[in-house]
Amino acid sequence: MIPVENMSDLDQARGLLDPPARQQTLILLVDDDDTLRTIIQMGLERLGYAVWPAANGESALEAAAHHNEIQLLLTDVLMPGLSGVELAEQLRKTHPRIEVLYISGHLQTTISALNVPLDSIHFLQKPFRSIELDDRIQTILSKRDEL
């Protein structure tokens, strides 16, 4: 689970990017754990992001078909049905500029077994704090904007 952080962490995270810029960032959040997905969604929304939650890869693909403005896919790696890796591959066909941040509570060696080199992807190990997630999102999106 993501620990509840103190208010100074949230205040610090909010200061990293102007709220209007965050509100223009649409994140497709995919995690098969309902509780965890809700906690992450609430944390992202408190930081000012627009979030579209999905419980699995199939519902994420359906949502993405109606939301061309998605900038970031935040997805669990190991899920029933489509894995996060398979979901990202499919989404890149219709959303070629989408960035992907994988999250997982499984050991990195387990994730490496999916033949995805961890040094070539954006990855955040669960549990994490909102400020860590926000920092990673900002890093990913700022690199994307430089291209």
List keywords for this structure.
46% helix, alpha/beta, 147 residues, Rossmann fold, 5 strands, disordered N terminus
Element-by-element helix/strand order? HHEHEHEHEHEH
Output the structural class: alpha/beta
From the alpha carbons, calculate the radius of gyration and give it in angstroms. Answer: 14 Å
**Any idea of the CATH topology?**
Rossmann fold
Give helix % range: 40-55%
Low-confidence stretches: 1-17
Give the overall shape: globular
- CATH domain class: Alpha Beta
Explain the overall architecture:
- The chain has 147 residues and is of the alpha/beta class.
- It has a single domain, classed as Rossmann fold (3-Layer(aba) Sandwich).
- Helix content is 46%, strand content 18%.
- The chain contains seven helices and five strands; from the N terminus they run ααβαβαβαβαβα.
- Strands 2-1-3-4-5 form a five-stranded parallel β-sheet, with helices on both faces.
- Helix 6 links the parallel strand 4 (99-104) and strand 5 (122-125).
- Helix 4 packs parallel to helix 5 (84-94).
- The longest helix is centred in the last third of the chain and has 17 residues, at 130-146.
- The model is unreliable at 1-17 (pLDDT under 50).
